[in-house]
């Protein structure tokens, strides 16, 4: 049974109902001269995107200095810890990066972020974003972030020359991957390279999606799918089989070094979001000749999405400049400067498609295609709040060691936060 993009997004987020936190930014006597922006875009493939956005911001706001408070580390695992301390200590930046969806749940509840509804109305954004995305970021009528992009999580990256030398084509299912893996290992290559814990969770969600299908996957996060059911346990078993064909015993330090193993030809595949496209381009590689990509096994025509967005923290030292930063993030110019560098597609539906080439030309078309099924990422904040994600992280680090699928399923189900 097909599920439309709009339908899935609506179903996935219908249960979001949290106490809103109203209030606008305090009026400024003097215009702000600087804006401190907190993100985790410090590494290769990410900082280039941020730089392009900042350059466009500077063009529109020559009087405002950009203070880059980026903290390195893929998926923001380190940055989010640093940020939490700052927010608790009443020391917010002017704007911080967060994923659209449930990742902001606790911050909204704690009153850390302002409602930006007035900015949305002023800028006319509401009908410029996909309806499902607006629904995902609306909590009790309030909107606390401005999405700058849409990333796709479920992608399998490879080098055509490596596959040619192995006589292989990319696997369409995880069973295909497992069938290839022994042959790849016999040739002395790692079938799938992997990095730290968050990349293992990223792999997990996409194995579950690929084996269970979009609808059952979506139910894992809404309560509609029983974690201890036979199909889920079987999918978890596939995850352990896949992991056994990876270099998880000696994982790379972060997602870029894991991809480097594919670049140098010591690994055949890496499963990563489309920020990998930006990174591979920084290596001087050209799409289709130097690197290729397919939907991760079993997920053809499914978009496992996430969206980077920016907030206005309550008590931001420079709220006037912060609002200008948010206007930049939500603008066509800003999104069309940022996304071609970042390896993502614009969140706005009225951006200039001609600016998206190579891998991104196909991504823009697939995202806009009404037949594409959309589900939300666990690892990147769409479908589960931070509390549940933290419990899943703990359970996963045990699961990766003991491979006890039933115990993992029980721990994940028990950790669910119903918010
Ligand atoms: C995601 C983020 C992406 C990219 C990736 C790797 O969480 O949304 O923009 O930065 O982490 O760090």
TrEMBL record:
GO cellular component, one term: cell envelope
Top-level division of the source organism's lineage: Bacteria
Compartment list: Cell envelope
Predominant localisation class: other
Keywords of this entry: Signal, Transport
InterPro entries: Bact_solute-bd_prot1, SBP, TAT_signal
Function in brief: Part of a binding-protein-dependent transport system for a sugar.
UniProt family annotation: Belongs to the bacterial solute-binding protein 1 family.
Protein name: Probable sugar-binding periplasmic protein
């Amino acid at each position: 049974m097909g599920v439309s993009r709009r339908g899935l997004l609506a179903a996935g987020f219908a249960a979001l109902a949290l106490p809103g936190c109203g209030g606008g930014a305090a009026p400024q006597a003097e215009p702000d001269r600087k804006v401190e922006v907190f993100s985790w875009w410090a590494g290769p493939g990410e900082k280039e995107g941020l730089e392009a956005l900042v350059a466009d911001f500077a063009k529109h706001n020559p009087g405002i200095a950009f203070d880059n408070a980026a903290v390195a580390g893929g998926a923001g695992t380190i940055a989010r810890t640093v940020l939490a301390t700052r927010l608790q200590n009443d020391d917010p930046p002017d704007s911080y990066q967060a994923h659209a969806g449930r990742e902001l749940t606790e911050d909204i509840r704690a009153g850390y972020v302002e409602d930006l509804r007035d900015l949305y109305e002023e800028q006319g954004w509401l009908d410029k974003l996909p309806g499902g995305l607006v629904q995902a970021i609306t909590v009790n009528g309030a909107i606390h972030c401005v999405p700058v992009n849409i990333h796709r999580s479920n992608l399998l990256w490879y080098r055509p020359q490596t596959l040619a030398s192995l006589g292989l084509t990319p696997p369409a299912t995880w069973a295909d991957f497992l069938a290839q893996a022994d042959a790849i290992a016999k040739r002395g290559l790692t079938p799938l390279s992997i990095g730290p814990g968050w990349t293992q969770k990223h792999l997990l969600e996409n194995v579950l999606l690929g084996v269970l299908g979009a609808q059952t996957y979506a139910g894992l996060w809404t309560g509609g799918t029983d974690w201890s059911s036979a199909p889920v346990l079987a999918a978890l078993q596939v995850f352990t089989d896949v992991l056994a064909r990876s270099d998880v015993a000696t994982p790379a330090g972060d997602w870029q070094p894991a991809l480097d193993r594919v670049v140098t030809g010591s690994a055949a595949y890496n499963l990563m979001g489309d920020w990998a496209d930006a990174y591979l381009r920084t290596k001087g590689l050209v799409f289709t000749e130097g690197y290729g990509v397919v939907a991760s096994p079993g997920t053809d025509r499914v978009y496992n999405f996430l969206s980077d967005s920016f907030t206005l923290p309550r008590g931001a030292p420079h709220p006037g400049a912060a609002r200008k930063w948010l206007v930049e993030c939500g603008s066509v110019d800003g999104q069309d400067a940022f996304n071609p560098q970042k390896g993502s597609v614009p969140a706005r539906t009225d951006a200039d498609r001609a600016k998206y080439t190579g891998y991104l030309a196909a991504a823009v078309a697939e995202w806009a295609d009404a037949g594409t099924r959309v589900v939300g990422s666990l690892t990147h904040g769409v479908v589960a709040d931070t509390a549940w994600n933290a419990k899943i992280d703990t359970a996963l680090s045990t699961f990766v060691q003991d491979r006890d699928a039933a115990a993992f399923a029980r721990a994940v189900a028990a950790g669910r936060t119903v918010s």
